[in-house]
Design goal:
By secondary structure, the protein is mostly beta strands. It has no helices and seven strands. 0% of the residues lie in helices and 44% in strands.
């Protein structure tokens, strides 16, 4: 099937073109800086943002799509599971 948007430049406001599962880890960064995260099972999410700062998002509901650019999902402080990175 042809991709009508193949020659269109991707933007941060456009749809994601790739997804990957993320396992929280305090030392290992995610494989790619994300444009958003999908949270399958809710809870708390501790991250390192693309800017380098750390923060914790609390009480995230299951099925939430967070439009945040992160380089790491920290195991310490993260209780959410089934996390998918979108780029």
């Amino acid at each position: 099937m042809a991709d009508r948007f193949q020659t269109t430049s991707p933007s941060l406001s456009g749809p994601a073109t790739h997804a990957f599962a993320i396992s929280p880890n305090d030392t290992t960064p995610v494989s790619e800086t994300t444009r958003a995260l999908y949270i399958g099972v809710g809870g708390n999410l501790s991250v390192t943002m693309a800017s380098g700062g750390n923060t914790t998002f609390t009480a995230i509901a299951s099925g939430t799509l967070l439009p945040i650019r992160v380089t790491k999902i920290l195991a310490t402080g993260t209780t959410a599971t089934d996390i998918v990175g979108l780029v």
